[in-house]
Queue: 3 jobs
Job 1
Amino acid sequence: QMPRGNLETIHHRALVLAQLRKWLDGLRFRDAFECMRKLRINLNLIYDHNPTVFLDNIEIFLKQIDSINHINLFLTELKEEDTTTTMYPCPSHSAVGKEGKKVDVVCDALRSTMETLDPQKYCLCILTSHVRKTTPELETALQKVHELRVNPPGGTSSVSAEEALKYLLFLVNVNELYEHSLGTYDFDLVLMVAEKSQKDPKEYLPFLNMLKTLEPNYQRYTIDKHLKRYRKALHHLSKCGEEHFTEMLNLVKDQRLYSDALELYPSGSQQYKTLSVAYAEYLVEQQQAEQAGLLLWRCGESTRALQAFVSCTSWRNALAVAAQIPLPPQQLALLARDLAEKLLEARRHTEAALCLEQYAKDCEEAISALIQGAAWEEALRLIYLYNRQDIIETDLKPALLEAHSNQTSFLESQKALFIRHKNRLSVVRELKAKASLELFGEDGPDCADAELYSEASSVMTGSHLGSKYSRSNSRISSRSSKNRRKAEGKKHSLKEGSPFEDIALLNALTQIITVVDKMREEVHSLLKALVLFQFDDAASALQRDYSDLLLLMDKSIPDIWSENLQPGQNTLTGPNSTVNSIVASFQQQKPAVPQQDTEALAPPKMRNSVKWKLNILK
Amino acid sequence: QMPRGNLETIHHRALVLAQLRKWLDGLRFRDAFECMRKLRINLNLIYDHNPTVFLDNIEIFLKQIDSINHINLFLTELKEEDTTTTMYPCPSHSAVGKEGKKVDVVCDALRSTMETLDPQKYCLCILTSHVRKTTPELETALQKVHELRVNPPGGTSSVSAEEALKYLLFLVNVNELYEHSLGTYDFDLVLMVAEKSQKDPKEYLPFLNMLKTLEPNYQRYTIDKHLKRYRKALHHLSKCGEEHFTEMLNLVKDQRLYSDALELYPSGSQQYKTLSVAYAEYLVEQQQAEQAGLLLWRCGESTRALQAFVSCTSWRNALAVAAQIPLPPQQLALLARDLAEKLLEARRHTEAALCLEQYAKDCEEAISALIQGAAWEEALRLIYLYNRQDIIETDLKPALLEAHSNQTSFLESQKALFIRHKNRLSVVRELKAKASLELFGEDGPDCADAELYSEASSVMTGSHLGSKYSRSNSRISSRSSKNRRKAEGKKHSLKEGSPFEDIALLNALTQIITVVDKMREEVHSLLKALVLFQFDDAASALQRDYSDLLLLMDKSIPDIWSENLQPGQNTLTGPNSTVNSIVASFQQQKPAVPQQDTEALAPPKMRNSVKWKLNILK
């Protein structure tokens, strides 16, 4: 049996909390506070219980508590956590999302009230409120201590600078306080803190004395740098005049403070230019050559800007700068050829053609680039603009026919792959359905399905296909190599019998549909060019093939993606089903797939509104 | 009680079918056939039971049946329906998808076997097999009758032409047969059929006599036209020589047989050109002016082609044709301006600029078009190419600042709308959840939610926004007017309390996300231009705004679209739940929405891989 005395101190928490809530609602902060202290209930509740009421009645709170120590206790116990949802949840309490930083809000509110009421009396509490902020305002606190020292207050209840500093040192680590006192650039304050600390004067005095000999801005810069406050350091150093510019540049480079540094100088100045060049060098290293180019250009460093633009194939800017310099025609042409080459590598044929035509004045190369990029209409435009109809027979027509044959075989291979994946998918689904039926103890039709999993119908991945179409003439090759890479990334799961084979198949099908659907514009433009040169049969055949494939895909989508949308409800309920089986069968409709694969569950959208067919073809 | 005699004729269908299947499996077609005739079982079952076996054993079938009438009976009873799945389903029978046209397959297979075995004996059956095809082959059947008449067979079992024709008339309507006999262009045959028919010789003889006087090709054309076989008519008319070309052109126009007609003439001929022009006129009427242009161009009608291309703003082709004609420089410039105007109306600024620059030789207008289209880099390129830096101050910079302010306010409005919709959505969902809890007899927290439905938080539709940004300087205006149209189309369901308000909100949110996400490239290019001209503050602000909004959307997507992916399972099962409540709560997670709205259930994808931020901005 428990000794009687202990029983008396046992309080039922729910009862206590109910009482506290009543008190707080009645603004009886003192009773609440006393009780909470005694029963070790977290003081945050005073605020959390009803933040608005508390903030509206801070003066009443301060007057009721009326003890520096207690107020300090409250301030030090503050934390961001909302105790009404964590420690002391209340049944009828609806958690309203409180925004902003609670600790900062309470500290600021209390301090502002205390400063109105009696700054001297609440001196220590005010210091606490500075120190307790999310980012402690140590400089401000130190500044207040310093003021106490310079103008000691007269009142009896007032605190001396000595006491205040002592209290601060109790709240904050001494070294931290010393660093921050340095940050005020106020040597009296620094000395005051240093004296109170256990620091060896031989350590800090020489440094302080050295600082005192420096020019004010450079002094502040030195302190900032010592405190690793580089932005401030930069600011002060920039005021130290021309002779310190190299030091400044090094600081900027070391700390990567380029943007900050640029703001300190007028945009026309030499320093601005030097800083921009340094920044640009850094940006080029960071693979941001275009931005480097912009910075260099705007500060007048045209040649360097040109280099930067060329290095990232920002060809419009490069050519603009080149024209501004201005580059001699010969060099401009070379530059244009250089850019065109890079653009061709990036398969940006039309842009390459523009460089070649307008700047290198080489219409033949330009037309060739356009033909290579399957930009048939644009190629024709240039052919007639420069009266080079000979190119039609020598280059354009052969390219058209090759593009036609590439497109045809690409469509054929995609169609075969699509059908194979689609058929395999229905096999996999049937197997899964049977497996799940057996799981729930229902008798599925007895057939040997285990072997079906390793059935011989091999699933080809996209990787077999790309290699055939590596000619650069049409855009197919870049597309299929992308496919290949994608397909390889997921190859593991396309393997027959893998647990997510259905998902992998859905992904593969989505990919094929997307790729084929994207060809509408390209096929349309090819068809028009074929018709123009009387290749009507080829055009008709391509139109038929492509149209058939699109139709096949469009019609297959409901079949392939139906399961995710319409639960098959026939086997769901019944005399043999249990709650678990029902829930499980719902969940089984949405297979638990790895997160990155969920997109496969949504059917791809085909752009049927894009009209690509020619009416004049059969 | 039933009289005894009747009972004997009652057969249990299942037993009968089982017996039939056994017979058919044993290739005892005769027994099966007799039984089926007697018990009026559909003869299709003979084939449907096992198509492959039947087709492999046609000879056995024919020999066992060995009756012309019975074979004809079988042929006439054929239909596409698979009786094993419709009339006589078999429990152990797995429905294998049979492809192709069953009736045609059986007819052709039987006929080919009969023709090998004894064409004379099976003569009538062969005729039946022609007539029974999906598209009856009446001409072929008539031809066979005609052969019988010309070369009467010698055998005793053989059928006379007379008999055969009589049989045909029994199978086919007499007028139909007459028309088809005409279609063989064989007047003997026509007369033979006509004599058998009840037709009045005064009706058909003059027509036949008239036909006989015509030149053979024109004769056939006249017959084809009479039979409305316009493609054949065209073919024959084309052989009648130059003097009938006008008649042919009229036929082509009347029957829109342009493609067919073009195939009948060499592409260099005058007729080909005339037909192309006619076709082009028709295509222009059908809003297919570009295809019309291609046809005209390729047959050498450059001026007409130019008109067609201009009318549909197919500007590259138009300029190519114009250069080929060649148009005098003055006119070419006018043409280019005309095209540029149309392109500007269609907001295709870059293309308009190209026309103005290269063909109208008006760099100032070209640059202005580019600035209007927010193609800053391209505008700069031309400014420096033509050494018109003055335009930077007069036009480019003001346009940049205006674009900046437009983008800023557009983002602001989209953000406000997004937040409003998002908040309303969570209100609607809460209400729906409560409503469904109450539906299942569970006690939801008692609060008055009915009023909440008509809560005062008004939901703004996109339509308020567009009007502010109607300046043409940036692409915003076209975008928001599109939004407006879309939003108006669905306004009814965004109304508070409408049954699919949540779906409407999801749609609206998807739209906002898509529109804002699409701005990445545009904002990126604007930021670069702003930086180049030292508008760093404006650029930083825009980058911050846009980045914040994208982040807000990205973070909101899981909240907004969570319900569709993760069923909240806490209220699903429990002592009070029933099978119906569980099923219903699953289904309720996927609201039964109108079909066209289901896409709203999938979260929109944000293109977070598109890098648009500038590192040099804060």
Job 2
Amino acid sequence: MALVVQKYGGSSVGDADSLHRVARRIVQTREAGHDVAVVVSAMGDTTDDLLDLTRQITREPTARELDMLLTAGERISMALLAMAIHELDHPAVSFTGAQAGLRTTDDFGAARILEVTPDRITETLRSGAVAIVAGFQGWSDDDVTTLGRGGSDTTAVALAAALDADVCEIYTDVDGLYSADPRVVSHAQQLPVLTSEEALELSAHGAKILHLRSVELARRHGVPLHVRSSFGTGAGTWVTDDPTVVPPDHPTVPGSNREESVEEPVISGVAHSHDQSKVTVVGVPDVPGTAAAIFAVMTGAVSTVDMVGQTHTAADTGLIDFSFALPVEDGRRAMDALRAAQERLGFADITYTDAVGKVSVVGVGMRSTPEVPAQLFEALAQAGITVHLIATSEIRLSAVVDEDQLEEATRVLHEAFGLGAEDEAVVHAGSGR
Amino acid sequence: MALVVQKYGGSSVGDADSLHRVARRIVQTREAGHDVAVVVSAMGDTTDDLLDLTRQITREPTARELDMLLTAGERISMALLAMAIHELDHPAVSFTGAQAGLRTTDDFGAARILEVTPDRITETLRSGAVAIVAGFQGWSDDDVTTLGRGGSDTTAVALAAALDADVCEIYTDVDGLYSADPRVVSHAQQLPVLTSEEALELSAHGAKILHLRSVELARRHGVPLHVRSSFGTGAGTWVTDDPTVVPPDHPTVPGSNREESVEEPVISGVAHSHDQSKVTVVGVPDVPGTAAAIFAVMTGAVSTVDMVGQTHTAADTGLIDFSFALPVEDGRRAMDALRAAQERLGFADITYTDAVGKVSVVGVGMRSTPEVPAQLFEALAQAGITVHLIATSEIRLSAVVDEDQLEEATRVLHEAFGLGAEDEAVVHAGSGR
């Protein structure tokens, strides 16, 4: 008997039929002898509908009131889900974020969880009932807060950590994480197991299934994640650093074309991201301290600077160019900050483009395989794809390329690192959302 | 400067435009120098929509979960209303029932208020902001409860009592209480002032504008009510036993055709109710104790028995009939209880009909005017309307008549007691709901 936290996103609870299906799945887990705490998002379009209403009222909603409004969404889905479970003759009780003990900072709209004291959840599970908890929300000083992007996943992982759950199952509309986005790479294959570090890098650099924030939290607290489809019965993807938690009958080899390999794959997956921009500071005097000054301006303006390239414009001018890759929402902000400091920094000009994208290869095997950068450059060069910038972590290598070559680059690298399955990927998507 | 509690019902906040209109009215009250606490219901059809969703999930929703679900409705309206007030550059903060300190019994779906500790409301008003409170909801032992029918009015009155407010304004889609339902009596006139007892009797016997429960609460705590239209600017109806709280410029005479009268009207209004049934116990042995036994059975089965008529079937049989008038939802239940006791009580048969209605005339002047019953019988008799049963309180006289004569009876009594205005009533109804 295990303690299982299950999280169902908005597309898994889009309407009454979906709620019934989710209820059956929860009851099956109960009947298999497990304790089940469920974290649920707002139904399908509820949040969008509430935001539409808000726009009819004001263009600048107060953050506190917006949180009060949006938390109505989970209240609806969680109460209906509890009823749907009752309908199957199993007890279930729903709880708001506050009732579940999720205390947060008072940053309305983007609150961080400070503490989880799930006394009522523990009590409910002990009584033999299913506990249903509203995702995405908490409380701070008797006010309702929301956790912002990826909030429901974060709720689920935080609750799993506080309950010391055996696993946190993330149900979504696809059946796990893939070696690449199957909409771009037709032979992408579902990944059976990833380390938390790999999942972190994939999520941070374009894979959209898991929210970076929840993967970080799961990693920090050692919570095993199991990503599954709420529409199918596939094996899903485990994200864990402890191989013993993965059931013995779970698939272990990514695809049939890799079965002959005795080694673990070097690269687990390829992520890509369209939402990139490139800022180039042109004609910077090549004197000590300039690079540091430019960095200081950048880091004051934006959240993360992922990649830097430095090129001499001409050997005899004593001027250099700096290029940065940034998420597109940060690009303009960085440019404004740099322009404001142009006189002090003494550079000639700035150029900006968002017609770039980023492709990243991720795998723990990179640590022991120094050939990866060479393989990447060679594969892209053979395909006629120019690399503008490059960045690495211990287990990731990212390249910025022209946006119109991004998907081709993704396919090329997926193939070059031998990730392709023999068959086309079949994604069990329910609503197509 | 006064402390004003304003309550806006669902039809007053049906959409974004209505919310903007309500916000402007609240801001006007603020700008007139008053402190304003607002109680708001769920928007228009929200509750019905949530109940529709519920029916797609289960036919027997758990009471606790149903309350969790339905309280999402006020959460939406109150947050949007706060935003709409901000949009007019006034501060406003919304509060759930729990945050506003409404502690209730744990009777989910029909909770009673135990205590109101509106510390956060007081604090908010002191800070110069408008406090917006969710109607219809409270909390009990950290669970969310709803107050059932008339809940938002009840919230408003309870809050007004706890805050020691100067007035509780009930905004609705009509501009006050009328001498009769204007849809039935075209010359019905708006009543400027009623005593709490009159409002109580009118509400209890068919007038639908105020909920009986909130009028009782207002009476007990001495909270002056002011019923107004949220769509127009009419003077509205005051319900109070303290004439000094009514502003001096408020109309005092019901209608132009009564201006010559130096006396207060004997009858203030006529209420009618379609939802009535008549149960007759036929052939009851006329021996001591039988009536008491029948009553005991009835009072065990139903909430209120309003009227009783006793008729000898024939002088020589020694048998009598008892008739009762009951709200239609109680009628069948009473009949079942009586049938179960038929052997013990020894009666011959029971008849039941719901093709009856009740018309009631109400007025504090009845205390000093013993002619009212005679006038009522005469007026109805002249119009060819048969009275089946009759009941009285100190200030009310009710008659049960055939349902197809009910509206005619209402018009006849309205006319007979001189309540008609010279012009047809113009009801400022917004949505027609």
Job 3
Amino acid sequence: MTNRSEIKALLFDVFGTVVDWRSGVARDLRPFLTRQAIRVDSFEFADAWRRQYAPAMNEIRSGRRPFVRLDVLHRENLLRVLTDYGVNVSSISADELDELNRAWHHLDPWPDSVEGLLRLKRRFVIASLSNGNISLMLDMAKRAALPWDAILGAEVVRAYKPSPQVYVETVEILGLAPSEVCMVAAHNGDLAAARLCGLKTAFVVRPTEHGPAQKSDLHAEQTWDFAAADLNDLATQLGCPT
Amino acid sequence: MTNRSEIKALLFDVFGTVVDWRSGVARDLRPFLTRQAIRVDSFEFADAWRRQYAPAMNEIRSGRRPFVRLDVLHRENLLRVLTDYGVNVSSISADELDELNRAWHHLDPWPDSVEGLLRLKRRFVIASLSNGNISLMLDMAKRAALPWDAILGAEVVRAYKPSPQVYVETVEILGLAPSEVCMVAAHNGDLAAARLCGLKTAFVVRPTEHGPAQKSDLHAEQTWDFAAADLNDLATQLGCPT
């Protein structure tokens, strides 16, 4: 059984694990799509936008492109998706596109996230380890009262998960041993990469991250150190009082 | 008059401005010096240790040495000061030196710091912009309840204040204009460097940072945008309710 008393810091994936990106992005898309008379369902557009996420980061993970923060990739991906839907992007003002791009800064937490994080924070260092950039995480945390002790992640180490250096360098920044750090994510792939770097792992199931027909990440695909129904459940499993 | 309504984020120097490093380091030194039978006053030793701070960082600021985090410099400086006092450092265990080096992680805030930061946090993004490394700032914040929204600073940008890139890159990370960011420090030199990069500036006087005979930084040496008696006073000047 995993020795939970050894854990000193918890690192959290954020998009999908702590916040509901799909509903939040669709909410900000709706008035934009109406204003621009773009006849696409807001959830479908959000999914299309998100599908550009991994390929865009792959350019950087592979070394073909130097590191740029996620706001830049989101903005490029937005133009790509609009173009794919037949929109003439030069007819839309840069300000309007910038504002829409900030939808990713304004996402709502899942109902258990804030309480779970507050409980976990009393016993552990809690830090975000997201591919989102620092200002994105900061805007999100201020709006949603996410009580991070620190905002770590891609921009701090200038690399994108699941590149091993993200986990390795973050553990080094924390001044801890890998086994003293636990990665918390709703994505088996993130946990698999963290485990290869020696971190402990906690799976949190988020069955509607991708909407009602979600097929991926519905179950733990390895025996992770912890598997939890939500962040409150994880807090209970890690011995944090309510 | 400075337009305070434009300010969105406050960046804080930490050693001396938010926490009392001299008393804290001397407190941890006392049992060590006794145990090792080193006959030096703990405040004198703390001052000697701190005097190595700027020259050590200058090696990195000048480009003669690649960036290393402050914990590494503090550890090297400790050996240097011990040797200067005639101590045979090879007679002291690495664990004991490491533990003493963590004195910088356990500093107490000035009496007004936590309340002032909590008031400021309600209206602004508050982030540390220290030369201290992330784990140092994190340990300090957890112990002293410093409510940072984010821990920024030297390790994130891999450069030491007052190098201009520290201020410029941090403002860029925040996604703000320089004039929307205010540097808060008890040191005129830090503020002068921030002003050259276009940031707003707030001086907080800390007349006993260097002990009862302090001669430097007792007064604002330029007309900074704000000059405050402490962080509570700054919160009041910036319109934050108690």
